[in-house]
Amino acid sequence: MPIIRTTQKRGRKESAPALLAGLSILLNTLTLLADYTSEELAHFAMVVFNPL
Prior knowledge:
This protein is 62% helix and 0% strand. The chain contains two helices and no strands. It has helices at 16-35, 38-49.
């Protein structure tokens, strides 16, 4: 089964909504990393990915 990929034409700029979405993800990630220790993040990941 082939993988379907979308590509942009050469010279075409990224759209403003796409850039803002990426910026939002980056800022949320930086906030998360600033607010929690690595141990807390590891615990959160364990709870989320191994709920039992």
